Amino acid sequence: MKRYLLFFCLIITTLSACKKTEKFDAEAQAKLDDAQIVAYLAKNNITAVKDASGLYYQIITPGSSEKPTLNNGPYITYKGSLMSNGTVFEDRSTSPQYFSVLDGLIEGWKIGLPKIGKGGRIMLFIPSGLGYKNQDNSSIPANSVLIFDITLINFN
Fold first, then answer.
1. Could you write out the DSSP letters of every residue in the chain?
2. Could you report the per-residue pLDDT of 41-54, keeping only the tens digit for each?
3. CATH code given to domain 25-155
4. Are 116 and 152 in contact (CB under 8 A)?
5. Nearest 5 degrees, angle CA 39-CA 33-CA 72?
6. In what residue span(s) does the PPIase FKBP-type domain sit (predicted)?
7. First-to-last C-alpha distance (Å) of the chain
């Protein structure tokens, strides 16, 4: 009986090891996201700057010379949408919203918001790796390229 149990465990272990698992390829996803952003910008005749991080941004209004750091808490209004179909998702605020610290937000915001000063407005075109990555987040599907229109009212 022990021999059969050992044989059964060996078979199960072997079959489990053969199971194919899909590994997420962040580099390949970044290339797909970049191509999607470039196509979107061209189609909509938008001139944007590409940051070394892969973030694209368009400064609508630069604002004052005072710019937030990762340790500041921004007061902002913002609207977020999916680049793929323009759906505005629940992550938006038309009245000023306060965040206790910029460093606690998604990477795209950490990189983009310090590019403008108080009173500034920026459009961020955020590849999935700088957003919610390959995880579903309520109304935002995995690997979504995001567009944020953000006005920095103030920060502390």
1. -HHHHHHHHHHHHHHHHH---PPP-HHHHHHHHHHHHHHHHHHTT---EEPTTS-EEEEEE---S----TTS-EEEEEEEEETTT-PEEEEEEEEEEE-S-GGGS-HHHHHHGGGS-TT-EEEEEE-GGGTTTTS-BTTB-TT--EEEEEEEEEE-
2. 999 999 999 999 99
3. 3.10.50.40
4. yes
5. 110
6. 71-156
7. 71
AA letter at 29: Q
CA distance linking residue 135 with residue 61, whole number of Å: 32
Q: How confident is the model at residue 8 (pLDDT cuts 50, 70, 90)?
A: very low
Rounded to the nearest 5 degrees, what angle is found at the Cα of 143, between the Cα atoms of 80 and 17? 155
Q: Per-residue pLDDT for 93 more than 90?
A: no
pTM of the complete model beyond 0.70: yes
Other CB atoms within a 10 A radius of the CB of residue 46 amount to: 14
The structural domains of the chain, with segments of one domain joined by +, span 25-155
